[in-house]
Amino acid sequence: MTLRLDKFISSQTGITRSEIKKLASKNKIAVNGALIRDGSFKIDPENDEIIVDGEKIIYRDKIYILLNKPQGYVCAVEDKKEKTIMELLSREYRRKDIFPAGRLDKDTVGMVLITNDGKLSHKILSPKNHIPKYYLVKLDENFNVEYVNKFKQGVEIDGGEVCLPARVRGFENAETTALLEISEGKFHQVKRMFKAVGNKVVKLQRIQMGGLAIPEKLGIGEYIEIMHKDVEKLLYTADFDEVFSIISKKFSSYWINI
Q1: CA within 20 to 30 Å of 107's CA: 43, 51, 95, 220, which one?
Q2: Same domain, 12 and 102
Q3: Rounded Cα gap, residues 232 and 127, in angstroms
């Protein structure tokens, strides 16, 4: 497979064609050690070494980035009024074809997958696949055990919408904190679910999707590129009780700096 040099650089870095042309004119683009000034030059992305402004461009067909989203950012490729999660990525990862696979509210923190894999994104987001998402929820008032059955039956939120059955459980040593598992993504769903049972969400953090949990050491605003073996875990159905057992031993560490 061969590609135009400018098209390859743009697709892998997000650098515009006009910027690439300027870099080439300044002898800042090299292919296999040779300076190239023609953007139409054909390259083999899998075998050729491409250096742009001193940085080696690594070819990736599909890319998967796991971000620990901070508050104050929206999950969008671009927004004229708000800061987007894309601004948290280095230039190496700001490719034109990447996007957030799912959304978190502006004031919600935690796990967001950024990718260019449309098929995977569809599998994760489709309600038909019932991929579970896990949230740590900090409530205004104490967790009530009655929530367990209400959520299991499918709580009716404002507007008359009925949510799919969900699982929730409170922590014994933290009376206002709970673990919630849902398999859909209605607008402000978690906040509306707890409002429906007479409580209010104070803090909200997504900590796991499917069988893939956010690394405990991944700080707020930090991100890592994950490999295919980890990506596959996103499509697994985790066991709620097992997730609760793991989180209950260390959940307080997730709230640091939030």
Answers
A1: 95
A2: no
A3: 18
Catalytic residue set: 105
Q: pLDDT tens digit string along 183-236?
A: 988 889 999 999 999 999 999 999 999 999 999 889 999 999 998 888 989 988
How many structural domains comprise the chain?
A: 2
pTM of the model: 0.84
- Which DSSP state fits 36? -
Two tokens at 76? 């969008």
DSSP state of 80: S
The 10s digit of each residue's pLDDT in 134-164 is 999 999 999 999 999 999 999 999 888 999 9
Is residue 226 within 8 Å of residue 65, measured between CB atoms?
yes
As given in the structure block, the two tokens for residue 71 are 């508050």
Do the Cβ atoms of 104 and 69 come closer than 8 Å? yes
Q: 117-125: long-range contacts at Cβ-Cβ below 8 A with a sequence spacing of 24 or more?
A: 117/62, 117/63, 117/64, 117/231, 120/64, 120/231, 120/234, 123/235, 124/209, 124/210, 124/234, 124/235, 125/101, 125/185
Q: What is the rounded distance in angstroms from the CA atom of residue 204 to the CA atom of residue 78?
A: 23
CATH code of the domain in which 33 resides:
3.10.290.10
